[in-house]
Amino acid sequence: MSQLPPSPRLDSAEAVAAHLDLLVTIDPRLSAVRDFAGPVQPRITQPGFPGIAKVITGQQVSVASAAAIWSRFEQLPGALDPVTYLSLSEAEVRGAGFSGSKFRTVRAIAEAMVAGELDFDHLETLPAEDAVRYLVAHKGIGPWTAEVYLMFCAQHPDVFPAGDLALLKAVHHGLGLDARPTIRDMIGIAADWHPHRSAAALLFWRYFAVMRDREGILL
Q: To 5 degrees, how large is the angle CA 85–CA 77–CA 43?
């Protein structure tokens, strides 16, 4: 059986591969999923305020749209610092492509950070479930945003965003399930992949991308 690298966090392709090696021993069904998906890369985003703002940018929009909006947003002077973000007007931020609700969510996060009520360094020290609870206590941050932040910005090894539609579609197809799992179903399925749930999520995102490119969007 493969051993994990010195850091269990998913901060390199080698770390992801080591987690996947262990994951397929837990659930052999994932071996075929991995073979189809090919190499799986980590997703690494700057932590803290820039990271959470980028995750929020990606809420309920396509990957291409999120990338375009983010490229405009990050060019706004002061956009990536909570103190200077608060000096930006709603018109400036929405001009980059943010909705009004996303502008207000990021503003509330900036205000919480400036007030010392939201500490991303502290977040890094918490177990996944506690970290999710810590984040969702702040207005505008739901479970998906919290879980994706932990995966991409903290490289946490054991998080699965069960509400992600692409993951639900990919698991439905990849595991040959009779029906697309509900979020509740998905939480139960992913529980069996502990403590490598983040690697499982990366694997199924990659699986979904390959299926999309070869056969069109999964329905």
A: 75
